Amino acid sequence: MIDVVNVWKSYKSGTRPVEALRGISCHIERGRFAFIVGPSGSGKSTLLYMLGAVDRPTKGEILVEGEDLVKMSESAQNDYRREKVGFIFQSFNLISNLSAIDNVLIPFLPRGVTAEQRERAVTLLTQVGLGDRLDHRPYQLSGGEQQRVAIARALVKQPVLVLADEPTGELDSKTGDEIYKILRTMQQAYQATLVVVTHDRRFITPRDLVLEIQDGHLIAGPTDALAPHCPSHPQAEPNPSAVKAGE
Q: How many CA atoms are closer than 13 Å to the CA of 194, on its beta-carbon side?
């Protein structure tokens, strides 16, 4: 499904060069629930947004279903994001003057919404427990309800990949638990590959794939199937061999 091969990301902070990612290689199988964890500034979100073709690596390959995102034109990347990827953000990113159902249908609005797409949105909102709030605006919904709308929006395109960046970061712990229960239920129901960036390891189970990043390097995590294959110390030079996980 996803192969990240020797990916590096460099940028400048003022005049100072920064290596955000240093030779990251990993494999995520189709249909997995995967976590990217690590301290702040480790490169977690950088990797996540590269998987979504929002950013490009300085060097390396990122293949999703055999297509190299790095070699895609900007137009092809736009098509990839629109058709194959669903995004869930920490701050929900709902449009304040649209109803819950219209927020879910945002991916289809530029080309017009079909009856089938509207029916799918209603089904998704019902599945996340908002079947009686279809016409509510974001200000009429709690934080947890807004994130449920965002989950439905991420799935309405029937994407092959869903990327979530700290999806419970603005929620209390009880609501966060509810959101993860919904994420797991929906991920299993729709068989999407779900990759989540989080600081909160309490949501991780032994069956999940964990990609732990520290100082731009991929290292082993305590519940990680990568552990037997990962280097125990960061490498100073690029490592061209892909680390296989979850197989």
A: 25
pLDDT tens per residue across span 145-171: 999 999 999 999 999 999 999 999 999
CB 34 within 8 A of CB 47: no
Give residue for tokens 């909160």: 200
Residue type, 98: L
Taking the complete model, does pTM exceed 0.85, yes or no? yes
Please report, to the nearest 10 degrees, the dihedral formed by the alpha carbons of residues 111, 116, 121, 122 taken in order: 140
CA 171 to each of CA 40, 56, 67, 132: distance values in angstroms, whole numbers, following the listed order:
19, 30, 35, 22
- Distance in angstroms (rounded) separating the CA atoms of residues 244 and 197: 19
Contact 81, 161 (CB under 8 A): no
Q: What is the C-alpha separation between 163 and 221, in angstroms, rounded?
A: 20
pLDDT tens-digit profile of 184-202?
999 999 999 999 999 889 9
